[in-house]
Known about the structure:
The structure is a homodimer of 212-residue chains. Chain A is built from ten helices and no strands. With 212 residues, chain A is mainly alpha-helical. Chain A folds into two domains: 1-48, Arc Repressor Mutant, subunit A; 59-211, Orthogonal Bundle (Tetracycline Repressor, domain 2), CATH 1.10.357.10. In chain A, helix 5 (79-90) packs antiparallel against helix 10 (203-209) and helix 7 runs antiparallel to helix 8 (167-181). Chain A is elongated, with a radius of gyration of 19 Å. Chain A starts with a helix and ends with a helix. The first copy, chain A, binds a DNA duplex (30 and 30 nucleotides) through helix 1 and helix 3.
Amino acid sequence: MKKGERRKQELLDIAYRMFISKGYENTSIDDIINEAGIAKGTYYYYFKSKEQTLEAVIEMMIEKETEAAVSILDSDMPALQKMVAIIASIRPEPEEQPIEGALMRPENIIMHQRIKQKLVEKVVPLLSKVVEEGMEQGIFSCDYIPERVRMMLILSNELFDEGSFTDRDIDVFIDITEKLLGAQKNSMDFIRHLIAAPAPSDVQTANAEDKR
Amino acid sequence: MKKGERRKQELLDIAYRMFISKGYENTSIDDIINEAGIAKGTYYYYFKSKEQTLEAVIEMMIEKETEAAVSILDSDMPALQKMVAIIASIRPEPEEQPIEGALMRPENIIMHQRIKQKLVEKVVPLLSKVVEEGMEQGIFSCDYIPERVRMMLILSNELFDEGSFTDRDIDVFIDITEKLLGAQKNSMDFIRHLIAAPAPSDVQTANAEDKR
DNA sequence: ACCATTTTCGACTATTAGTCGGTTTTTTTT
DNA sequence: AAAAAAAACCGACTAATAGTCGAAAATGGT
């Protein structure tokens, strides 16, 4: 009952790596089992189908990405800072960025799409909590919070996940986010640093800046 | 030089119908050629690959859907009315709605995604023109028009293409669209009629809060 | 009638997801 | 420790399917 779990995790890790690097469609079961050094039957002892493997892999990714967000939520920073931190935490890590933007390549649309969908699903309640806190702190002012948060996330996903966005996109996105949540003009300028910046660290400074 | 064109169109029509009704993934080349009564080789004489067939089918759909929009643009209604008409014209026809919401089913994500993407690409310039006209008419007031229009379309696609949206979603979408384009409060309520049929429009309360 | 071009054919290959009955390994029971 | 049961594993096999290829048939101009 223990060995099985380890094996399943091993297969999951391999699948994860291969899906990311070569894409879901371009990864065959044979690829996976060769890498793992096991037989076909063993693979299907652990997974009902390739499809289901994808499901599990995505589940795993989302889990990993949201657990950081949850701990941020439970901390006691001010709402805006939480927002910064959470949004930063759900941006895909560089290692997860498949080579040559493979995630955006046509053959990987499925995986990409699913990840986005699940991520939104998971993050909406978290960010909604933050917005509620922000309302108490007088930073935000709006109704229908989950719906608004969801739209914000959808927009951010669709606009910025693919590499091709402009400064104008960012400007408009900030503008609309502020209006969406009823925030002060320019109060959400920190978003700029979360998106475009090739600079690695500096998540802390984001908050420092918007108190002008 | 004539027969070929007809045949290609015929295959395209068959592929279109089958992709829509059974989904892209669930339609095999054999399905198509059986329906058409031709041999494998003939099919591949006209199409390089299944993938490329999908490309052509989508091209065809988009073309059909946008040509109506273009003629609306060229007419001389007031801007708001044009907007209504164009948005209405790009909503998928019932016949194109695959059975049982097949377009949203996982196996059809690819096709669905591509259609949305291409449609946005095509419609952004058209609606941008309308918004420009609307600005001259004093209805809208904003900068970065194409970016804003694009966001509006992305949101509408992601929110309303799948069946699962609420009245709240519509309310927030209207609110945000007005703010996005700098339109008068409630001036874009007509969107409600373009999206959902069932609900009576009494749920006006959404924006009552943030009037300041 | 002849040739070139276009169109058509269908058998064949290659890849791949998934199945199945049996074998080995591990754990539990006696 | 032996036997039984359960878990983990094996790999040959099936079925589906995208795509290839060389040859045959239709077409059209001269």
